[in-house]
Specification:
Blueprint lengths: L3 E2 L5 E8 L2 E6 L31 E5 L4 E4 L4 E6 L4 E7 L6 H4 L1 H10 L8
Antiparallel strand pairs: 1-6, 2-5, 2-7, 3-4, 3-6
């Protein structure tokens, strides 16, 4: 996937049954360096996106039998490294419910996140 935040700051989990995935995560504080997801996190063009060099990625390779959790509001990109069978689900629970109760949290999402409103 391209670099993005899950819709409306939902949290998510992903379970791999076979194959491998490479994940790149960025904390919400790095949003100002991520160019609203226009930069390719796996092969960044630092001439075009120079601020991206300031972002601090967390890289993880997920294998069979592993579950990866994506916290609400975290930027991420994922790439299948081989043929992969996996299952994902986005969810709302007590840890991210505040994102739906505060209009300012939703407005912040629309300001920084990869959202259809940003498509050209």
């Amino acid at each position: 996937s391209h670099l993005h935040v899950d819709f409306l700051n939902t949290s998510a989990w992903n379970a791999v049954f076979s194959g491998r995935k490479r994940w790149i995560f960025f904390r919400p504080q790095d949003a100002r360096y991520l160019y609203r997801g226009e930069v390719n996190a796996f092969e960044p063009d630092l001439e075009r996106f120079p601020k991206f060099a300031r972002a601090r990625p967390i890289v993880y390779e997920q294998g069979p039998g592993e579950v990866v959790f994506t916290p609400a509001g975290w930027w991420h990109a994922v790439r299948n490294e081989e043929i992969t069978i996996a299952l994902s689900e986005n969810f709302i629970n007590y840890t991210n419910l505040r994102n739906y109760l505060r209009p300012t949290a939703i407005l912040r999402y629309f300001r920084y996140a990869d959202h259809p409103l940003w498509l050209k």
